[in-house]
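Colleagues,

For the teaching module next term, I've prepared a clean inverse folding example: a structure given as tokens, and then the sequence designed for it. I'd like students to try predicting residues themselves before seeing the answer, so please don't circulate the second half yet.
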């Protein structure tokens, strides 16, 4: 992918970002330890399938890294649950660190919809009912770029 047109354009234009693409499935590359995680912590995920543009052209391969930050981590010990809001930020396409503007695909999200708070735009929230267990490596979520 180092020689892709998109990567070459993004090297020349720092404002280059992936905005209008179909949905993508992300898979956590490392577990998130709910006992120590905090808002502002970074996370790393991988694309679970290639990222294609509207014409079917591959922009990023399966396994391409995506980095972001946790916007909120709430632990509710009495009920044994943790709420985590993720915000994907950069797709690490070889040759270009590309900003990503994405939102959780609510239609494919399992469980109840978590309402975002002011300042959590571009994030997606999940409730994990097995505190204090970590969110496992390989946890998958579906996102749409916008």
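(Answer key — instructors only)
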């Amino acid at each position: 992918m180092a020689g892709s047109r998109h990567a070459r354009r993004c090297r020349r234009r720092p404002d280059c970002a992936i905005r209008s693409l179909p949905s993508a499935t992300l898979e956590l590359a490392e577990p998130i330890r709910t006992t120590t995680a905090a808002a502002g912590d970074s996370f790393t995920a991988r694309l679970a399938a290639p990222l294609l543009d509207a014409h079917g052209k591959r922009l990023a391969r399966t396994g391409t890294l995506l980095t972001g930050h946790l916007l909120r981590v709430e632990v509710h010990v009495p009920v044994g649950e943790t709420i985590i809001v993720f915000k994907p930020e950069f797709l690490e396409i070889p040759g270009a660190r590309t900003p990503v503007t994405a939102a959780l695909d609510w239609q494919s999200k399992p469980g109840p919809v978590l309402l975002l708070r002011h300042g959590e735009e571009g994030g997606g929230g999940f409730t994990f009912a097995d505190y204090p267990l970590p969110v496992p490596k390989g946890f998958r979520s579906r996102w749409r770029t916008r």
